[in-house]
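Summary for the funding panel

The consortium committed to producing paired sequence-structure records for every protein in the target list. Below we show the first two records in order, beginning with the earlier of the two.
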Amino acid sequence: MDNTEMFGKHLRELRFQKGLSQEDFAFECDMQPSHIGQLERGEKSPTLNTLTKISDGLKIPLPELLDFTVEPKVKESSATISRINSYLSALTQKEQEQILAIVKTFIDYQ
């Protein structure tokens, strides 16, 4: 796996940890969702400007974004997240979006 692919994998993990869809993440970064997808798949290498937008969108320091040689931390609650995912998968798209809005509100007020 080359650096571009490793970065893409790391970026996807960071986005997942923030609970963002590609569309929401692209909006946060002022980028196109298709560009985010290309970066995550390792099809494109990011420019310095893109890296800055991504770190701002994720609200993390640039060095953390660039530390993609280390495997992302597995959270202790991964079993809980799996259970949540199984419940959510049984809901309609509209219901899932409503739950996402509730979770985002909860996180914003922490």
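The next record, for a separate protein in the list, is shown here:
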Amino acid sequence: MIIVQLALYCALFTLMVKLGVGSSALNGLFFYPKPVQERVYALGLTDRETVGRRRKRFMSAFFAVMAAALVLIIRVWNGNHSFRDAYWQALLFLEVMNWYDGIVIDRLWVGHSAFWVIPGTEDIPFVQTWPQVLKKRSVLTAVWFAGAAIVAGIAALI
């Protein structure tokens, strides 16, 4: 059952990203490295304020939905009532999501889809290299130990 839940959680992650960018990669410009962002601004395709608003809107909705889904999976679907059990399950989900994001979303989807190429920026690398993915995901692996405690605390309190 946990494999199905992990797959559904990762599918929700993908859906949230797709809904966030809609029909244009420009809607997700905040995901891109600074050189790409600066080129897009110079080309006049969008501005910093618009990107900032989109980032805040997306990140707020993304974290709220992903956290709520995780709490529901842990507490309601799996019936975990103790902090300890909720913590280990939250950690598993957050770590799988972390590496899913780096490998499947960043390297595979973004790295192999023309959708993510913004016209006028084709000459600027925007996909993370494997060493960058490994570094970022390793740092986030440590961060999620704290994040799992927050999720577990919420799950145990409700």
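Regarding this second record: Residues 36 and 42 are 10 Å apart (CA to CA). The chain has a mean pLDDT of 97.
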